[in-house]
Amino acid sequence: MSNFLKYKNTRLKALYNVERLKADKLKEILADDLAGLFTHATEICETHNALSYKVDFDGETLFLKSYKPATKLRRSIREHFSPSCFDSFQAAFELEEKEIPTPTALLAVHIPEIKKQILVTDFCQDTTSMDMAMGNDSAFDTVQIGALLAEHLVRFHMAGFYSRHLRSANIIISKAADKLWFIDLDKMGHNWYLPKTSTFTSTVSRAGFEFFFLLSDAAADAWLKQCFTSALEAGLFTKDSEAAFLDAVKKDLYKRRFHTKESLTNPANIRQDD
Ligand SMILES: Nc1ncnc2c1ncn2[C@@H]1O[C@H](COP(=O)(O)OP(=O)(O)OP(=O)(O)O)[C@@H](O)[C@H]1O
Ligand SMILES: [Mg+2]
Fold this sequence. Notes:
Layout: E1 4-8, E2 13-17, H1 23-30, H2 35-38, E3 41-46, E4 50-57, E5 60-67, H3 84-97, E6 105-111, E7 116-122, E8 127-129, H4 130-133, H5 142-158, E9 161-163, E10 171-174, E11 180-182, E12 188-190, H6 197-208, H7 217-233, H8 242-258, H9 262-265
Antiparallel strand pairs: 1-2, 2-6, 3-4, 4-5, 5-7, 6-7, 8-10, 9-12, 10-11
């Protein structure tokens, strides 16, 4: 199981994976503003928060995310520090400890002079995001990957986790459809009490709202039933609570998708089978 340590010098602060980065290697990486890491970097995508890269470094392929400085409003007084990078790094260790799949985190570093934080994790080869995979143009078998997703949402929930950033775009799946990983872990939390069914309802609706309304009615219901069956097997429900679960998740899905309770009373937004 991986373990992490703090590293600090006059110029920067870092958390690093002690099993994957030896102290000498770390000093080498952190020298010269990480320039070495960016030498063989290919940009993957950019959002208002971050720039993500695929990087070849020291014989390995890594994922590197460079967080942009926090906006004026959200800026903390100290050093324009946005905590997402360090939160994601620590959350990856928490997930790994409970055997929930996520790319192994290697390094989180804060560089005050450029007001940036950089997160480095393992790169997962040949993946696509779950929202694309469950979308209607996809070559994936949605029954097969729906079951994989359901099983992992139950594992995530039963281990006590929840996440305000959980959505299908933040779950990646191998093209062989046999593995998935939770990514983008900055708004994750952990409950120390027994997992509640209401938290599972919101975990499922968060994970599903981007693709649920693209599925046929039958496929959408089948996916919710897969979530229920996996949770039933894990001891979260009793058999007769299926209808209540389906109803609660659908209401939550509509709210998330259409941002309003109104949509429930608008016939245009109601599925045929409701
Ligand atoms: N470890 C990884 N291996 C392979 N690809 C990854 C990995 N992590 C992320 N990706 C790819 O990079 C994309 C962006 O990653 P991520 O979701 O962390 O950032 P983001 O959503 O662009 O940023 P943010 O939400 O913080 O603004 C993902 O959609 C996924 O396609
Ligand atoms: Mg994301």
